Structures
1.
Amino acid sequence: MFATYLIGLREGLEATLVVSILVAFLVKSRRRDRLPQVWTGVGLAVALSVLFGWLIEYTSTSLLARSEDRELFEAVTSVAAVVFVTWMIFWMRKAARTIAGELRGKLTEALAVGSLAVAGMSFLAVIREGLETALIFYSAAQSAAGGAGRGPLLALIGGVATSVVIGFLLYRSALRINLSKFFTWTGALLILVAAGILKYGVHDFQEAGVLPGLNDLAFDISSVLDPSTWYAALLAGMFNITAAPSVLEMLAWVAYAVPVMVLFLRKPATPAKPTPATSSADAPTPAVPRA
């Protein structure tokens, strides 16, 4: 359940920061009359995200009759979730310093157009996070517990609620945290979560008959990592680390986690400042000894 809590916290905080920037800009610009349009756009984005999550669940449980079709559907959504996670963490690392200015610029343009533009702009700013959250949550919940129980949903709600509280305190300047370090640590954890989701997706592809090697185990450490113990359940729920994975599952896990983690933690290269060339006229003249 920690994985789904982390997803709710990370995605929720991104959305909360976006809304906080929009609200703070309107308040400082003395345009409080446009706040209802912002909240309307945010509310529509949240409602559509919930509907999208319900549609994914309904498709998996009601529209797909054969177990092979359900396994294939879960595998495809798992791969899509991994793509979204990867894109999201790298985009946030790149855009964290400029997102506030970009949002203010877009909101200024929307204010000049009218109330519908303001609502549409706030809707578009939040809907991406909501759709990502729904897709990633579904895949993480399936990977952790096969979608059973209310635990993953409660963990997601808890993560979102925590993000709302943090965002409100940041808006009121009652809390100051290093967002760069926060997104770095949560991004690294989400890479491990995404690796587990990809491993689960490969397993579903194997069960659906799309990929071979379901019974070709990479190793079996059930005697050491007993699946019935709490720590085994914790590792499986967080990162889908199991005692007897197939060869393809482990290859997928390692092939994704290692290079993506290295690229994510590597500091971006800072361009070297050009050194001005010294012309011959500016060069110091050597001292001439006197006769």
2.
Amino acid sequence: MVQNLRKNFLNALQGKPVDRTPVCSVTQTGTVELMDLTGAAWPAAHSDPEKMAALALAGHEIAGLEAVRYPYCLTVLAETMGCNVRMGTKDIQPSVLSHPFSEGPDKLKVPEALLEKGRIPTVLKATEILAARTGGENGKEEVPLIAGMEGPLTVFTHLAEVKNYLIWTIRKPEYVNAFMETCTEICIEYANALFDHGADALCMPDGGIIGSRMMPPSVLEDSVKPFYKRLCKKVKGPVILHICGDVGDSLKTLSECGFEAISIEEKASIKAAKEAIGGRARLIGNVSPSRTLLFGTPADVKAEAKQCISAGVDILAPGCGIAPRTPLANIRALVEARDEWYEEKD
């Protein structure tokens, strides 16, 4: 039995003893079933703080996950910096349509009053609402609040496009440095505002380009790692790095940046990941969000979840964002699997 979900989660992030392995999603949790049950559906829940909060709470109160995670996209900072964003539909997440700095970083700078622009005020207001509702007052359970946001690499590639990033790492490294300087500062300011408004931890999905194996190790070491280290040093609370793809070759370097934990998808081996990370960060993952959670059965979910716990994950979670059409029963099966694993162990 988990006595205090918030304490248990934060202990896991810090490598301290836990009651049981926490079960949550550090990536997006909005599903169509939860939208229908709460009346808080996309795309309105991307821009309305009350709906954003209601849908996030449903991931815990209805689906049973042991944390509350919000928002549901990786376009908040991109939109704030001038990207046109398609807001999507009930089952399609927002996406970036334009890249306003594709010519270079000449006019790129951290905006004045950044926190007042775009949907940032919406997310900060939702943070306040959720902090009040997960804080353990009036006899309620204390539940960890995980804020999600783009990392500097994601902001960079939204602003300038992936192909330009790849070209500039070879031909114009000074462009890469200028973008990473500004994007990192933007991320730090926003991250600290999220903590100031009540978030317990931050999940930063970033570096999908790393997992794609298109980034040479020298670029990761020289052009990404220093900025990740700066971000981890300047942000006021625990930061989780989520990386898509097979990042096995990069995990040692990433674990040296100062992140409390690294979240991996199912393409990465838990055993190899733990060996690469050592004791420098905790490991989160990595039940397949598509093959198992979306298309499998509760029994499939339980089998894979138990394998993850046995392999040594510090926090059991989907390997990436939960697909909007994922059955509610399959999400609930994650916690059921964890509880069964401990019962079988005893």
